[in-house]
Structure formats: C-alpha cells, structure tokens
User: What shape does this take?
Amino acid sequence: MRRPLAVAFCALALGSCGTNGTTAPTVLFSEVPTVSSAKPDKLRIEQAKRDGHLTVPLMISVQPGRDEEVEQALQKLGATVEARDPRIGYLRAEMPVDKVEATCSIDGVSKVDVDEPLSNRLPEP
Assistant: This one.
C-alpha cells in the first residue's frame, strides 16, 4: 500500500521540479549561433605538413539545410567534396592542408575533424 503512494508522490515532485509554475522559454534552432564548436586537431595538421601531404581528408558537420552553401564555400577554398549526406548534416572533403583552418570560419559549419584512414589489418593471435 505504501509503494503506490510513494511512487505518486515522487511523480508529483519530479513533475513540478524547476518550473515554479512557469513554462521554459522556447529556442528555435534557427536562433542557435552558427559558430564552429571545435577546431580541427592542429597536431594532425602539422604532422600532415611535415609528412609532405598536400591535402587532408576532413569530416565536416553541417547545420541542417546548409550543406549546399557549405559545399560551395569549401570548393572556393580548393576542397574536393567526396561525400555528402544532407539528412544527417555530413560532408567529407579533401582539403588543402594550408586551408584547413579557414574551414572552421565557414557559416553553417558546426564541427571539423581530420579524418584518419582505418587500418584494415587483421588482428594477430
């Protein structure tokens, strides 16, 4: 008999937490700032330069509906866009090493990561 009463009390207590009788403000996604949240790993970029690579593969997270705009901006910087999936806001591009830093300043870019190729070696016993 005590258990249902305790559960009901907890539900009421949790239901009223933090509201104080007011509703939380609604923030539209379009009002979220378009500033990049993360810069690519500078150590990997510097290593690519030392190794003599002219380009590096990038995985780029794009804000919804801005993939075409970002793709055009990347191409202006000299990138080759290899894959694009607007459903999840993803671009994969081959970018000149000296232009990687500029990728973060493109409007609509959320995050930039230097992509690393996967090793397909079989594990040794």
In short: Residues 33-114 form a domain with the Alpha-Beta Plaits fold (CATH 3.30.70.2980).
